[in-house]
Design brief:
Keywords: Membrane, Transmembrane, Transmembrane helix. The chain has about 280 residues and is mainly α. The chain has twelve helices and no strands. Helix 6 runs antiparallel to helix 7, helix 8 crosses helix 9 and helix 9 crosses helix 10.
Length: about 280
């Protein structure tokens, strides 16, 4: 029998009506207290990791890890203030707030300090092309999103995306702790680089997804891939420049170059050559 008649629901009648009222009440409550619920969600995400993060306010620990102290201080305080201030204003206004000059200052401090810290990290031994490009692409995307929100008349939607993107702080650490549970091989120190690469890519995807950046996941992966390729090409070109060349020094100072490729080829160029002949004589 062909019929478009919808059969009566199994929960029709008084019971169904009660469930509809309950669902409506729940939805109304969630909408009414959404700012407070979002604040609690952020606090729950951040709180397990804040003690370790604020330990970097110690000059001794920061310098022992090879990071500059002032950018680190600006980084670990401006980021949480930027996020918490947004949620406090959201709770007070009950609508998505627009960025103001204070937000501009906090964002600038956070983004600039992120850039300076990444310059130092990009030269470390564990910073592979994927790790370096992942952080660099994220810094660029965050800057573009906030700049767009500011230039489009303090757009509240894009401003909200720039704030939500900072939840990468928590997503990164959650992913880092989850991956070894899924794959025990990632617990080994020998696989530290692989774990860090996976953590960087997966957590960045979660961050842009939560932020609601349009086409954010393919965009961040495209930016990472483009950065990897461009930095490799730039490294090949700059290897032919002298060390005192201003352009080479500027690019090296920015960190946007494949240091791994350069180090690999420099180490190969210093390997002693073996003369052709009996194959035993090494030229020192």
């Amino acid at each position: 029998m062909n019929s478009t008649t919808i059969p009566p629901s199994a929960i029709s009648g008084p019971v169904g009506l009660q469930m509809q009222r309950l669902a409506h009440t729940l939805q109304s409550g969630l909408s009414r207290y959404r700012p407070e619920l979002e604040t609690l969600f952020v606090l729950a995400m951040y709180s397990p990791f804040l003690v370790q993060t604020f330990s970097y306010s110690s000059p001794k620990l920061t310098r022992a890890r090879g990071f500059p102290y002032l950018p680190m201080i600006a980084h670990i305080f401006s980021g949480p203030l930027y996020v918490l201030r947004y949620h406090a204003r959201y709770a007070a206004l009950r609508v998505w707030p627009k960025p103001d000059p204070t937000d501009l200052v906090l964002f600038s401090l956070f983004n600039l300090s992120s850039f300076l810290l990444e310059v130092r990290r990009s030269r470390s031994s564990y910073s592979t092309a994927i790790i370096r490009s992942g952080f660099q692409a994220a810094i660029l995307m965050h800057a573009v999103v906030f700049a767009a929100s500011w230039l489009r008349g303090q757009d509240p939607v894009l401003f909200r995306a720039s704030v939500k993107f900072l939840n990468w702080f928590a997503w990164f650490r959650i992913t880092e702790r989850t991956l070894p549970v899924i794959d025990p091989r990632l617990r080994k120190m020998a696989n530290f680089g692989t774990k860090f690469e996976l953590t960087s890519a997966l957590s960045a995807s979660l961050a842009v997804w939560e932020a609601g950046v349009p086409a954010g996941v393919p965009v961040i992966f495209g930016m990472i891939a483009t950065t990897v390729v461009c930095e490799r090409v730039l490294a090949k070109i700059l290897m032919h420049y002298s060390d005192d060349n201003p352009l080479k020094r500027l690019v090296f100072a920015s960190g946007y170059v494949d240091f791994n490729y350069i180090k690999e080829h420099e180490s190969q160029s210093t390997v002693p050559e073996v003369e052709q002949g009996d194959g035993t004589k090494v030229e020192l």
